[in-house]
Amino acid sequence: MLSKDLLVVIKRNGVIRPKYLRDLNIAKSLIAIFNEHVGTKYQDLQQDLNAFEEGNKDYKVIRGLSTLLEQNCEFETNSTLDSVKIRSFLFERGLVIDDFERNQIIEQACDFFKGSKEEIEEVFFSDLPEGKILIKLSPISALDLIKRYNLSLTQTLLFNALELTISIEGNYQQIFRQINYLGLMYEIEKNDSEISFIKITGPASLLRKTKKYGTSFAKLFNYIIKADKWSLSAKIEMKSGNEPRIYDFKLNSEDSVLLYKNMVENDIFDSEVEAQFYKDFKLYNMGWEIKREPTIIRTKNYITIPDFGFYKHGQELFLEVVGFWTPEYVKKKIWKLKNAETKIMVAVNQNLNCEKGDFPSEVIFYKDRIPVKPIIKILKKIDEKYIKLEIEKLKTVKITEDFVSIEEKAKELNASIESLKKLELNNHYIIGDMIVSQNYLQKVKEKIGTESDYSKISQIIADNNLTLGALEYMGYKIEWKGLVPVKITNFKK
Length: 493
Known about the structure:
The chain is α+β, with helices and mostly antiparallel strands. The chain has helices at about 25-35, 40-55, 60-70, 85-90, 100-115, 115-125, 140-160, 170-180, 205, 210-225, 270-285, 325-340, 375-395, 405-415, 415-420, 440-450, 455-465, 470-475, and strands spanning about 10, 15-20, 75, 135, 160-170, 185-190, 195-200, 230-240, 245-250, 290, 295-300, 300-305, 310, 315-320, 345-350, 365, 405, 430, 435, 475-480, 485-490.
């Protein structure tokens, strides 16, 4: 975060927005200046930075970028002598009125600290910022510097926020952990598209504005921008003249603002049990997509973030894992599940003092590993119900093509492949991944004619984009000699 005096904003018609950077030229120049001063005193670096600022209307931008670059620097004193002790020794000798007395006191310091006159003179202020030596600038690109600057501008602006309203997709767990950790209050709202809006306020909005409150908003912004998709609006209090005024600020992930995202990895799963279940479920590959902490669900004035979501056919099902926790935690968890606006099935550690009747939806007890089969069974029932309804809708559909892929036809009809495969067709067959008409098969059969050689017939089948499974529908069967197919005979004359 930058200091308030380095905040650069644009105000217009009650709207405020930081003056974000995209041009890399200033950043490149400043990085070059810092690199040139590795091994020199901080005061020498400052002199060149001041010279760079002269005549530049964007001096606040230069100072802001320089401040961030300094955070990437290492400074040290270039002496083994203790600057603080030397200063104390010299000042204790009292007021110096001429060079003679000054030299005498410095000579006393040389004897006491076992150093030369030049060393005493050099070390006198060497521990102060101006006297320190720049020994290293950690590598940083101009692009990353610009991203850090834009992030810091936003955080500095949010320092003056009275409230935030955010919409997020993904990263729910981290964001709500931070909201709770920072002691902020929130309300949940939903719009027609089912994207949750979180209005974040806090104690300061009820009593008085504090730095701690503004700092919390700034810290939270780091986690908001890690979400897959996000938008933010805020009420910002800034002075206009001598009077405070409220401005609107909006920003979202679709804006072309370069923002630095902390790339520190966080554990995806809260426990080994959850991680193992995720792996086990993926092995079944039954067409249901599984997502970790997929959404937020309102539970009266609170929210619940289910551990897993399952998605297919536009349908969704949620699973919450209730592991080994305190009785108070479990009691609160049960209350939330009972008051959730969407049903959530639960996997419960069998060591907890819980029964199926404690929960409003399906319950699966586990010991060391969450069993996948009961969940697969529940999902298959949903599949079967969906397919049954879809087949009823598809019964009136007429397929006119002689040859078309199931996937292509499913997209055209906005139907599932599973439903098409189970659909009873009058003049067509499902052969492999294709829908083939009787007329098409008859034409292929005419090409085969009286041929019985396996290799020749299989080539005709391949040339017509069919599999050997089509032979049965045309009235043929394959004769084998051991494990080797030798010829094809026509069992339907």
